[in-house]
# Entry
Amino acid sequence: MFSPSREIFRRYTDAETFDKIVEMESVSELWARCIKEFPQQTAIEDNGVSYTYEQLDRDAALLRSLLKKETAAPRRIGIFAPNSYDFVKAFLAAATLGACAVILPAQLDETSVFGCCMKYGIDTLVYAPELSDQTKLAAAKRPDLLLIAADQNGEEPAPMVFPKAEDPCAIMFTGGTTGKSKGALLSNGAVMQGVVNGCYGYEHVFSLRYLLILPLSHVFGLIRNLLTALYTGSSLFICRNTKDMFRDIAAFRPSILVLVPALAEMALTLSKKFGRNMLGEDLQYIICGAAAVAPYLVEEYAKFGVKLFPGYGLTESANLVSGNPDSAEVPESVGYLYPNQEYKVVEGELWLRGKNMMDGYIGEAEEGVYEDGFFKTGDLVRFDEKGRLYITGRIKEVIILSNGENVSPAEVEAHFNALPFIQDSQVFEDRNEAGAAILALEVVPRQTELSKLGEGDPKARILEELQKVNQTLPLYQRVNKITVRDSDFARTPSMKIVRYQK
Amino acid sequence: MTRAEIIEKLKDILLSADDRNRETIETCDERSNLALDLGFTSISTLYMVIAIEEVFSIRFDNVGMSDFETLGDVVDYIEKKLS
# Structure
C-alpha cells in the first residue's frame, strides 16, 4: 500500500501557502532557497545575538572553506557541539559541502568520541570549544583527523556543492548517548522529505517563531525543529538550558514549540500552579512526539487556544512518518502517513519503505532489520476508516501469557491513560505469591486532576476507577494487580519511561 | 526569610508537583534525600528548579537540582541567593 499523496493535507492550509511547500533534493537546495527568499529575516537567535539568513550563510560559507579537502573519497564530518549557533553553522557548512554530517551527542565522553571517529570513518571533527577536552583522545590516536573548532572561520567563503537526493547527508544515533548505539545513515532526499513532511497540516507554516529545546543530536530536534524552521523562513531561538525555557519563552514569544510529551505535561502543570499560560500568549502550535501523547494534553492545551499535534516518527525514517492535524477529533491518533511512503502491516507490525527511509545502519549487521525490501518498525499499529494511524504497542514489549494470548502493554495502558487523572502507566508481567505469571499495572496519578475525584482517599478512588476500566477489557487484557505509585517512573534521557524487564 | 519559611515554601512546591506523595513531603526535613526519600526524577527536578526560581524570585547559576543531595542543601542555596 502507498501512503496518501500530499493532497490529503491541502485542506488544512490556504492554497498559496500549500503551493510553497515543494519537495527538494538536498539541504543545499533548501539553503539556496532560504538565502534567496529570506535574506534579511532572523534565522537564529542564540546567546543574546540574532543572525539573519544572510549572516548565517556567510558564516557557513567561511567555515565551509576550512572543511574543504582535495580528496575524491566521500567525506564524513563529525559535528560535536551542544545546541548553539555554532552547531547550526557547522551542520549547514558540512551538508552544503556535500559531506555526510555525523552528529555526535554533546554528552559523549572522550572514549566515545574517539570510538565514533573510528566506527563512522570521520575524517574531520568540528567541535564546540568548550568540548575540546573530549576530543583529546581522538586527536592523539588519529593524527590524520582534521580538528576544527566551531568558532573558527576561513578567510574566503567557499561555494556550495549540490549533492543528489541519494547522496548521504547525516548519520544520526538511534538512541542512547554511549557512542555504542546504532548510527542511521540518512540521504539528502530522506532528510528533505522529513523537512517537508513537517510543513503539512498547519494553517500557518511559514515565518513562525520556533524555540529549540530538544537536542539537535536527535532527529526531532535537527529535522523538525531546526531544518523545517529554516525551510519555512522562520526564526529559531536556541534555549541553551531547559531550566530557562520559560524565561526564554517570555522573552522570545514563540508561536510554535516542538516538545516531548513529558515537557508538555510539565509546562501544563506549572501553568496551572502559577495561574497563567507559561508557554506564552503567542503560542499557536505544539508538535508533540518521540513518545506516546496522552489525549488529555490535546484537550487541555486546546483550552489555552493551542493546537497540539501528535505525530509518529523514527530516526530511521528521517523523523516524520505521520502527523495528526485532526487531533481535536481523534487525539489518540498519530494521524495520516506523509507522502512518498509505501507500507505494509504484517501481523500488526508496520513495515515501511520510501524516500524518507534510511540507507541502513553504519557498521551494524542488518539481520532482521529489513524484510522484502521494507524496514520493520517494530511498532504495532492499526488504521481507522479514514486512514489515520494508531500505535497500539511495540513488538518487543509484547507479553505472551501462559495461555498463548499476546498482550500489547501499550494497547492496555491506553485504556487506563484515557482517565484524566492518570499521567502515565505501565503494564508488565509480574509474579503472584504462588510464583505464577500475572499481568500487573502501575500508574502515576496526574496531580492536577486529583481534586476532581471527590472526597475520600485519592488512592482508593483511583483504584476504584481503574478497576472499573479493567472490568471493561477483554479477559486476556485484564490486569491482576494494580499499584498506584507515589513517584514517577524512572525515565530515559529522552524522558521515555524505563520499562520493567522480565 | 527564615529557614523554616523556606522549607514550608519548598514543601508547597513539592506538593504541587507531587501531591500523591503528600505524607512523605509533609514529614520531610532538611536531612531528606532528594532522590532516595523524595523520589526526584529528571522531570520533577526540572519542575522544582523552575518553580523555585518563580516562587523565590531567584535564578539558579550554573547548578541544577542534581548538584544537591538533601533538601537542606537546597535551603542553603536559596538562603544564600536571598541574602
User: Anything to note?
Assistant: Chain B has one domain: 3-82. The mean pLDDT of chain B is 82.
